[in-house]
Inverse folding.
């Protein structure tokens, strides 16, 4: 819900959109980890995060989210290294994945359309992981 700078002893800094794994809970605080900072465990306030029911998350949408986060680091590196063709190609695929992810999350597609879009997303993810 909000950025958290982790300005307490053993605080875990979080940005909006970060996922966390909760290890312990108190009245006002959680202790956990963030996949973006894999070896760091720390505290963060309960009021700064939104809990999701993972049983309702579409696995293709979840994988797409993780892949886009991973690819964003590669995309930045390609920019810095001035690899223009790879940078532009990856950008196009990332934008297409973002649009497909948005459509899947909107829940306005029929089952057939959803399945077809999921197959396209998986195909793009496979292309990018080569």
């Amino acid at each position: 819900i909000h950025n958290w700078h982790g300005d307490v002893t053993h605080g875990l800094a979080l940005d909006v959109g970060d996922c966390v794994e909760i290890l312990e809970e108190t009245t006002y605080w959680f202790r956990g980890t963030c996949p973006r900072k894999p070896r760091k465990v720390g505290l963060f306030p309960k009021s700064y995060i939104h809990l999701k029911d993972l049983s309702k998350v579409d696995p293709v949408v979840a994988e797409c989210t993780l892949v886009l986060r991973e690819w964003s680091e590669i995309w930045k590196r390609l920019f810095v290294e001035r690899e223009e063709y790879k940078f532009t190609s990856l950008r196009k695929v990332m934008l297409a994945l973002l649009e497909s992810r948005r459509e899947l999350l909107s829940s306005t597609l029929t089952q057939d359309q959803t399945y077809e879009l999921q197959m396209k997303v998986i195909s793009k993810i496979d292309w990018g992981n080569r």
Q: What stands out?
A: The radius of gyration is 17 Å. The chain has two domains: 1-51, 59-129. The mean pLDDT is 88. Residues 84-106 form the longest helix (23 residues).
